[in-house]
Design goal:
heterodimer; A: about 375 residues; mainly alpha; MetI-like fold; two-stranded antiparallel sheet; 14 helices; 2 strands; flat; B: about 300 residues; 2 domains; about 70% helix
């Protein structure tokens, strides 16, 4: 794709009159002024400076919506047909800015304060106290360490998913049935999975997997008593739901490889194993990296299963950062500390993913 | 037939067939093993919802052979044939949660598909400049939302929603869910629009349609399969979402996953009713998965193949 100019050109002879231009400008700045005014009034009434009382900040939301609508209309008023192009992207942008950028800035404010939602004191700025508390919080570092383990488990998931994708792409009967069956775990909600698998099938006395374990010679199966085993169980449950996801992506990649390439390899005498490592696998690298990257992103959000099955136990061995912050909030209803932990987590993720992508880029396109 | 055979396999090739058969057996063995791994938990949950306490404790597995199916589990939801005609508070509660889940999931997915398709179309057809942001930057801005873990937004939203009186409302959940699936929709739809030739719209423009007219009447119908794929993927993610729902809803807007989760804590080992509830929670998506598998695969494959 070229980087200059539109792919789709709009040719119009819009003559925008000066009045129309003024109208557009008035719309934008007028509605912006209204929004600012609403915010100021709400802020003042919150501080108790003026007589008006507002129950909620709801008017601010309406003011933002009003400004956003006026901004969109003004695009057409100001630029005519050309302005209609930006209408495609403006709603989504305004939505994301309102829902992400603004709360993130707000989060930075919360992160450096002590704010217990159940106490009447409200928010108290406490500087770097939260950072100091985080530095000395062994459970947070433990949760971060667990995230590293959980992320490393992706390599095993990837190997299984790749194997299944290879089989599904080969000559088999009833491919559609197997594809649907393999896809099923992805459709299930993690909460349901945590009951279905974690709480009932892995139940020590009556669960079918415990029966199987006893039958196989494990006398007293306990799946959530030992830290290592508990973590492995959480990994397995999470893998169970998400292997189909990687499998489908890899399958799509396998089907996109031209048949001729593999045939040529076979003609040249590459056996199945060598053909795979020297032809199929290298061709699959870009797809694999996309699949792994998306899987990492999803893995870093892992929480539902942990919250519902082990709630972090035994002794924090299965805790993820998300489940830890969730419990931290549930137990103490302090939003300040939890937000700081979350922001630090976000920073670590951004750094880790950037480094990962840079390394991949260096590795895929070596500069000699 | 054997006498009439003209071509004979060479001895060396016959040795090959034994190996081929071994390979087949191994492949189908793996396939069936993995099918069991994938489907057994679902089978287990559905059958357990028809079990009684002794069946659970004795580990009965096959209905009608091992045990006589009973409606006990479904009765605790007020959904058995005996109770379906009567008033039932449990059923009302369940239906309320179910509707909440359905409304939030469908509205959030619809909103995300509308906003996402428009943005993706704009990004695939026009060059924008918002300050220093060019097209790749804008794309990155949208897709990078995927990295954002929900926990970063959760607590600020708790406070903001409290101020805005959106706590424990469906609207609040819908807005957040739209945000979480928007990057995925944009990802899928960008791919979809890039595969549609620009000449189609050029012809439409020449024929006198505006760009929005061309978008709605020409491009959208062609991109419909991609939109369905994006919609269904969003539906799966939003229907199953637990974290935000657990934090931001309490009584009115509580969704089905939160209901399932709250039951696991309180009621020890009342397996049959839990199984019935879990079955009811996963059944809609299982049906969607079986019927619309094609679209789900298409949606997930969108990012894989450039």
């Amino acid at each position: 794709m070229s980087t200059q100019g539109d792919l789709l050109h709009v040719v119009t002879s819009d003559a925008i009159s000066p009045e129309r231009r003024r109208l557009g400008k008035t719309l934008i700045w007028g509605s912006f002024g209204v929004m600012v005014a609403v915010f100021v009034v709400l802020g003042l009434s919150e501080a108790g400076r003026i007589g008006m009382e507002f129950a909620t900040w709801r008017p601010a939301l309406y003011a933002y919506l009003f400004w956003a609508t006026c901004l969109c209309i003004a695009q057409v008023v100001l630029y005519g047909e050309q302005g209609k192009r930006s209408l495609f992207i403006l709603p989504a942008t305004l939505f994301v800015v309102a829902m992400v950028v603004f709360p993130l800035i707000f989060a930075l404010g919360i992160a450096f304060s002590n704010w217990n939602l159940s106490s009447p004191d409200g928010r108290q700025f406490n500087g770097l106290d939260n950072v100091r508390q985080m530095w000395g919080d062994p459970f947070y570092w433990n949760a971060l360490k667990n995230m590293v383990y959980y992320t490393l488990a992706i390599l095993v998931e990837y190997a299984i998913a790749f194997g299944l994708a290879l089989i599904l792409a080969s000559q088999i009967k009833a491919r559609k049935f197997f594809r649907v069956a393999f896809l099923m775990p992805l459709m299930l909600s993690p909460v349901a999975v945590s009951w279905m698998v974690g709480k009932s099938m892995l139940e020590i006395r009556f669960g079918p997997i415990s029966r199987l374990a006893r039958w196989l010679g494990w006398d007293r199966p306990s799946f959530f008593g030992d830290p290592e085993i508990a973590r492995a169980m959480i990994m397995m449950m999470d893998a169970w739901t998400f292997i189909p996801f990687m499998m489908i992506m890899l399958l799509a990649g396998l089907q996109a490889i031209p048949k001729e390439v593999q045939e040529a390899a076979r003609v040249d005498g590459a056996s199945g194993w060598r053909g795979f490592w020297e032809v199929t696998f290298p061709l699959m690298l870009p797809v694999s990296i996309t699949a792994i990257l998306i899987r990492i992103i999803f893995k870093l959000k892992l929480a539902d299963v942990v919250i519902n099955v082990t709630s972090g136990g035994p002794g924090g061995a299965t805790d993820t950062v998300t489940s830890f912050i969730f419990r931290e909030y549930r137990d103490r209803s302090n939003v300040g500390y939890g937000t700081l932990l979350a922001i630090v987590y976000l920073l670590l993720i951004v750094i880790a993913i950037t480094v990962f992508m840079k390394l991949v880029d260096r590795w895929m396109n070596p500069r000699y | 037939m054997a006498e009439a055979q003209i071509f004979h396999d060479h001895e060396a090739d016959k040795g090959h067939t034994a190996k081929w058969w071994m390979g087949r057996v191994a492949i189908y063995g793996v396939l069936f093993l993995w099918t069991v791994i994938c489907l057994f938990p679902i089978y287990w949950t559905i059958t357990t919802s028809f079990k009684m306490a002794p069946n659970v404790m004795q580990g009965h597995l096959v209905p009608f052979v091992d045990f006589e199916p009973r409606w006990r589990g479904w009765e605790s939801l007020g959904l058995s044939p005996r109770l379906i005609g009567q008033e039932s508070t449990v059923r009302e509660e369940f239906i309320k949660r179910f509707t909440n889940s359905a409304i939030t999931a469908v509205s959030a997915s619809t909103l995300a598909v509308i906003l996402g398709s428009m943005a993706a179309y704009g990004l695939s057809r026009f060059r924008y400049r918002f300050g220093f942001m060019r097209n790749p930057d804008i794309s990155f801005f949208f897709l990078s939302q995927l990295i954002l873990p929900p926990v970063v937004l959760a607590l600020p939203f708790l406070v903001l929603y409290k101020e805005l009186a959106l706590l424990d409302t469906r609207i609040g959940l819908i807005l957040l869910y739209t945000l979480t699936v928007l990057p995925i929709v944009i990802w899928i739809m960008r791919d979809q629009f890039a595969s549609i030739p620009v000449e189609l719209e050029e012809a439409a423009l020449v024929d006198g349609l505006s760009i929005w007219g061309a978008f709605v009447t020409i491009v959208l119908p062609i991109a419909l399969p991609g939109m369905v794929a994006a919609f269904i993927l969003s539906l799966v993610l939003t229907w199953n979402e637990y974290f935000f729902a657990a934090l931001l809803t309490s009584t009115d807007a509580k969704t089905l996953p939160v209901m399932v989760a709250s039951q696991t804590g309180s009621q020890g080992i009342n397996w049959w009713s839990m199984a019935a509830l879990s079955t009811a929670a996963i059944l809609p998506l299982i049906v969607i998965g079986i019927l619309l598998e094609r679209y789900i695969i298409k949606g997930m494959a969108a990012g894989a193949v450039k």
